[in-house]
């Protein structure tokens, strides 16, 4: 066999393979559509009822001696609580990282503002920045407002009299 005839044979085999791949892809697509159309709501309900009847009739919890169905439910509830705790821990770690990033950005911004303002500009010369509205997660715990002003004289007298 010559080299050209081998190349032609390989090209024919590749063409046959590509045609077969296209047919399989089309068949899978048609099967998927037929499968989705076959599972109509009444069939889903019938399958659920049949599965529930069979599970109740077979009583799979009886096969494992010493563990009654109430214990299985308790175990499932405990596992659900564990999964929720793990999810909350990951969310808290992510929130902590976000807060650290935000604090770092704020510190960098403040440092650049001080450098741009020059030596004569102090915090008393600049107005206090407006605070943005808290997000829903921040509304749960709102920290005390900062005391950047002096208390009125009546409060000052009260504080002095309480310290004595």
Written description of the protein model:
The protein is an all-alpha fold and 164 residues long. Helices cover 74% and strands 0% of the residues. The chain contains six helices and no strands. The longest helix is centred in the middle third of the chain and has 49 residues, at 69-117. The protein is flat and about 100 Å long.
Structural class: mainly alpha
Query: Roughly how much helix do the residues carry, as a percent range?
Result: over 70%
**β-strand number:** 0
**Radius of gyration, taken over Cα atoms and rounded to an integer in Å:** 36 Å
Shape label: flat
Average pLDDT confidence is: 76
Q: What distance separates the N and C termini? A: 112 Å
Q: Which range does the strand content fall in?
A: under 5%
Major sheet: none
Unreliable stretches (pLDDT < 50, length at least 5) are: none
Number of helices: 6
User: What's the order of the H and E elements?
Assistant: HHHHHH
What are the main properties of this structure?
164 residues, mainly alpha, 6 helices, 74% helix, 0% strand
